[in-house]
Design a protein that fits this description.
The complex is a heterotrimer of chains A (499), B (99) and C (188). Chain A has 499 residues and is mainly alpha-helical. Helix content of chain A is 78%, strand content 1%. The two termini of chain A are 29 Å apart. Classes of the chains: A mainly alpha (499), B mainly alpha (99), C mainly alpha (188). Chains in contact: A-B, A-C, B-C. The interface between B and C is large, with 70 and 85 residues.
């Protein structure tokens, strides 16, 4: 009994989030009509704050890896990603409260599903167990399908939900099939058992074709979640059609959780411990897998950037840009070593700030004008300088120029790739960054380099709350470009304790 | 019948499921293709479970059946909503957003 | 004898799947899919998974298939979408690849031979105990209940009839206006 209580204490954040999600559903019934969005939103924020508090308490005392209930693990890596998810959710909740796009009814359901999606991300980040990984992924996906279609009367939202559910269900089915093959080859559904078995026995006895098939099928599911090529087709339509707060959630929290699971999957299952030595076949296999991921990374960033060039809709352009960024991050994954993985963590934190900010500006703009076209931004810089200045900060970071965090993040990714010997990949990524300058610059040009008289809309005032949110994000974007030491140490620490 | 027989049946179901999702246009077909894929995965799990020993595979299959039901319910709700908005359920048809 | 049953059930499953992909009418495909579900349930019985076989029939045939039939009922028939060449091409090539890989995997995965497998036992009780054992499947079991709650609430919210048609973008407005005039004409 005591043992059970101790193990339960390790999953307090999860329990707390579930509790608040369920109560949010009920709060909706009891608050005054017309005030649901604000009241339920505040309640959800309180829940997220409480969850963050429990997570913070865990970070200090976590042993390297605390197994919980035989299928979960609490370690600094999972805590980092959980904090990441909670932070992203908090911003999504705030955006929803400030947005006019979401429906005037069904707020209780919206926040409930949003918090449960966060719960899915929690489990995805903290398990080596294939079953729990699949469950977490499905919880996150099912909740995301519903959220994408949440603006029910809106045709674009409906279309987004349908495309998302079709792609998502096929991809997760394919991944499940891959998981079953891994189980069949090793007789276990625990990655910490699967990894050694694959490396010690299977690769020796049978060559790598069966492993390649299984891994390839599994990677399809992950690639879909992080919207990497060749499973990125759903991204632009879904990001454009879903309500903007939901798009923010998909671009930041969902993608982050996908990367967390991918890193854990590769680290536990496919990276041989070089200090111990191991069969040559498996060493070679890990490198081959790295090369495959590198090719996917190059493909993803190139496709994303080239498609982004021609876009006229701001939200759709950011969707392609988020595909391109998945490519940059995959560059760190392709190294298949600790340095690369730690640069992935660092870049994801940076990505969090700049993408939340950029989508926040889009939402603000669409809210006040009902318009998402890039050309119609002209003159905005003179009319609403605060918003435009923060937007420029986010854009500079997205390109990856100093002095923002985007530069430092890319720097680490590039060095990790070059050290591993992927010089060609770094060159491709460099060219891509240069291409991305064009379309990000178009937005800045529209805002600042057109005279005030051409402005399509009169001054659009950001509410003080919204301006404060954007400022926080912009300060974060610039701050981590200068004072990145502590964050980097944090990422290294999390990464090195990963099994 | 040995393990290989079951694996082959599962692989055929899997391939036909993928074919069904790719080659047919109607969304209902895509959903049926997804069910075929999940059935193939479950058959794999149960077959391995029998030959590996232990119940892990069977329990995994139970969870996967539950999730298939949940996913089918959500997918159909979304499809019906889209049909109400567009009068069409071919995934290629509704394309407000293509350039 | 067992081989005979294996061939019977495997044949049922594969024939059902082929018919599902091939049939011109979506209702026929749905009933062919039932054949696959039943065939797979039969294979589960041969594999000694009695509880799972019943679950398969209850949930797949009794639940998911009925859902799909509802979906078919509530949407119009679409007889022009099948492109026979496309269907045959995709099916044949994918099945060929899958067969090759399955033979590869099947030939290297050697756990136990048929002869030394122990006789299957009833699985319902051990599965139930395993699902509620803290170090077993307690956490997945609880998590899946959250998934079901999300799916339940979400699909009810999405499928619930709208109180009033909300016009959110101009194209919807245009279509609604068009429909309105058509109805007026019909009425007149």
């Amino acid at each position: 009994m005591n043992l059970l209580r101790e193990e339960l204490s390790w999953i307090t954040p999860e329990l707390c989030l579930t509790l608040f999600a369920c109560v949010a559903l009920l709060v909706d019934l009891f608050v005054q009509k017309g005030r649901e969005s604000v009241m339920v939103g505040f309640f959800s924020l309180m829940g997220l704050l409480a969850t963050a508090f429990f997570l913070y308490r865990q970070y200090g005392v976590t042993p390297p890896a605390q197994p919980v209930f035989g299928c979960m693990v609490v370690d600094p890596f999972s805590t980092l990603f959980k904090l990441f998810a909670v932070g992203a959710l908090a911003f999504v909740v705030l955006f929803t409260m400030l947005s006019r796009q979401t429906r005037p009814d069904g707020y209780g359901e919206f926040y409930f599903i949003l918090l449960c999606a966060g719960l899915g991300a929690f489990f995805l980040a903290s398990t080596y167990n294939l079953l729990l990984m699949y469950l977490g992924l499905e919880l996150l996906s099912i909740a995301s399908y519903i959220l994408a279609g949440y603006a029910k009367g809106n045709r674009r939202s409906g279309e987004a939900a349908m495309k998302y559910v079709i792609f998502g269900a096929v991809a997760s089915g394919v991944m499940l099939y891959g998981f079953t093959l891994l189980y069949g080859m090793t007789g276990s559904i625990d990655l910490t058992v699967i990894g050694p078995k694959l490396r010690d026995q299977f690769a020796l006895d049978h060559g790598t074709i069966p492993i390649s098939v299984a891994t390839g099928l599994c990677l399809a599911g992950f690639a879909y979640k992080i919207s990497a090529a060749p499973f990125h087709f759903w991204t632009p339509d879904v990001y454009e059609g879903a309500p903007t707060p939901v798009t923010t959630f998909l671009a930041v929290a969902s993608k982050g959780a996908g990367f967390a699971a991918l890193l854990r999957f590769l680290q536990a299952g496919f990276i041989p411990d070089r200090t111990l030595g191991g069969p040559e076949a498996m060493m070679g296999y890990s490198d081959k897998l790295g090369t495959l991921v590198a090719v996917l990374a190059a493909l993803t960033m190139t496709l994303g950037n080239l498609a982004a060039l021609g876009q006229t809709n701001l939200k759709r352009m950011l969707a392609y840009s988020s595909i391109a960024h998945a490519g940059y991050v995959l560059m760190g994954v392709a190294t298949m070593n600790r340095e690369g993985f730690s640069s992935v963590l660092f870049y994801l934190v940076v990505y969090y700030f700049m993408n939340l900010g950029a989508f926040g500006v889009v939402m603000y703009y669409a809210n006040t004008t009902g318009d998402e076209q890039i050309d119609d931004l002209k003159g905005l810089g003179w009319r609403s300088p605060l918003v435009a200045i923060t937007m420029v900060a986010f854009l500079v970071a997205l390109v990856g120029l100093p002095p923002t965090a985007g530069f430092i993040g890319k720097w680490f990714l590039f060095t990790a790739a070059v050290k591993k010997g992927f010089l060609w990949l770094a060159v491709v990524a460099g060219i891509n960054s240069a291409i991305s300058l064009f379309y990000y610059f178009r937005v800045a040009r529209a805002m600042w380099l057109r005279p005030e008289e051409e402005a399509k809309y009169a001054t659009v005032h950001a509410s003080p709350a919204f301006a404060a949110l954007l400022l926080v994000l912009a300060v974060g974007t610039v701050w981590f470009g200068v004072g990145f030491d502590s964050l980097l140490r944090y990422c290294d620490y999390s990464q090195n304790l990963l099994r | 019948m040995g393990l290989a027989g079951y694996l082959i049946v599962a692989a055929i179901l899997f391939a036909l499921g993928i074919a069904c999702t790719v080659a047919r246009k109607n969304v209902i077909y895509v959903l049926m293709g997804i069910e075929l894929i999940l059935n193939a995965a479950n058959l794999n799990l149960v077959a391995f479970s029998r030959f590996v020993g232990g119940l892990d595979g069977q329990i995994f299959a139970i969870f996967s059946i539950i999730l298939a039901a949940a996913e089918a319910a959500v997918a159909l709700a979304i499809v019906l909503n889209v049909f109400g908005l567009f009068d069409s359920i071919r995934p290629d048809d509704p394309d407000l957003m293509k350039e | 004898m067992e081989l005979l049953f294996f061939l019977l059930f495997a044949g049922l499953a594969i024939a059902g799947a082929v018919a599902t992909v091939w049939m011109r009418y979506v209702v026929h495909s749905a009933f062919a899919l039932m054949g696959t579900f039943l065939g797979v349930a039969g294979l589960y019985v041969l594999l000694g998974a009695d509880f799972l076989a019943i679950t398969q029939i209850l949930i797949y045939v009794g639940g998911i298939l009925v859902l799909i039939l509802f979906g078919i009922m509530l949407t119009p028939p679409d007889r022009t979408e099948r492109n026979a060449k496309r269907v045959i091409g995709f099916s044949a090539s994918l099945v060929a690849i899958a067969l090759f890989l399955a033979v590869q995997i099947g030939s290297v995965v050697r756990w136990a031979e048929k002869s030394n497998l122990e006789a299957p036992k009833a699985t319902a009780a051990p599965i139930g105990r395993e699902l509620l054992r803290p170090d077993g499947y307690l956490i997945p079991f609880e998590l899946v209940s959250v998934v079901l709650l999300v799916a339940l609430i979400g699909s009810v919210f999405i499928a619930r009839r709208r109180k009033a048609v909300r016009v959110d973008d101009s194209s919807t407005a245009a279509i609604l206006a068009e429909r309105g005039t058509l109805q007026q004409k019909a009425g007149a």
